[in-house]
Amino acid sequence: MSRRKGSFGSRMFDICNIIFMLLIGVIMLYPFLNVIAVSISSNDQVMMGYVAIIPKDLNFGAYQLVLKDPLVWRSYLNTVLYAIGSVILTLGLTALLAYPLSVDDFKGKKAITVFLTITMFFNGGLIPTYLCIKNMGLMDTYWVMVLPGCVGAYNVFVFRTFFQGISKELRESAYIDGANDVVILFRIIFPLSKALLATFALFTIVGTWNSWFNALIYLSDQLKYPLQLVLRRYLFNAADSVTGNMDQAMKMQMQMMRVNMKSVQMALIVITMFPITIIYPFLQKYFAKGVTLGAVKG
């Protein structure tokens, strides 16, 4: 039998793989479609449970209600600023720490590596971290959402391992031409590390975009809230609508637009996940390559 046609067992294996991947795709896609369908369906259809993945009786009132809330726009801007600031600081500071550790003749490399390794396994805990941030004057500031997590030991080790995989001859040639370490890092190392930088930029953006707990314990000013805390507020409004304690102004607006709190929640979820959905395809080619780049050299 020709190898190109394959045996009956190999064909069955391929068919089973295709069916399995289709099932996984359906399982992952269904919640996404359901959220969109509920967000643009009328109140009656949603309340009766007729909406699955196909919208019924189209109604965009939920989006109108959400987009009229000034706190949503403010939190959206805050989250974008937090994400951009986290990416810049995380990539910049991590690279600045990892590059010296990748150089063989750097003094103090072992001591710094041991210190970083310890921080991977032990930390002060939530209360000491809170007290530290409070004593540093970061409470209820924009910086509290960016600075505490901008350098991680794991990220540093991945960057270091990747930098060690870059040919030493390139650095030696640059030294001979009169370049210093800063020039080498920004003109040679960074251009060769696009996949690594894109991968960790995506990780940082997604982590910052989904972060809500730090904002919950460190921020009291609503004007500094990220989008996830606003989503949490809408979730509490949903609970209040069940118990009858819902804000009357919002309740009247929902009645005028013929939507319920579930549709409003779904609309806000769609608005929340939209930027990540747009960004990922542009970084996907780097992401697939960059996931294993840190394992080039042990």
What does this structure look like?
- The protein starts with 7 loop residues before the first helix and ends in an 8-residue tail after the last helix.
- The chain is globular and about 75 Å long.
- The protein is mainly alpha-helical and 298 residues long.
- The longest helix has 33 residues, at 70-102.
- The protein is built from 14 helices and no strands.
- It has a single domain (61-298), classed as Orthogonal Bundle (MetI-like fold), CATH 1.10.3720.10.
- It has helices at 8-39, 43-47, 61-67, 70-102, 109-121, 126-135, 153-164, 168-176, 181-189, 194-210, 213-218, 227-243, 248-257, 261-290.
- Mean pLDDT is 82; it is low at 241-245 and 294-298.
- α3 crosses α14, α4 (70-102) crosses α7 (153-164) and α12 (227-243) runs antiparallel to α14 (261-290).
List keywords for this structure.
298 residues, mainly alpha, MetI-like fold, 14 helices, 0% strand
Task: Give the secondary structure arrangement, pairings included.
Elements: H1 8-39, H2 43-47, H3 61-67, H4 70-102, H5 109-121, H6 126-135, H7 153-164, H8 168-176, H9 181-189, H10 194-210, H11 213-218, H12 227-243, H13 248-257, H14 261-290
Helix pairs in contact: 1-14, 3-14, 4-7, 4-10, 4-12, 10-14, 12-14
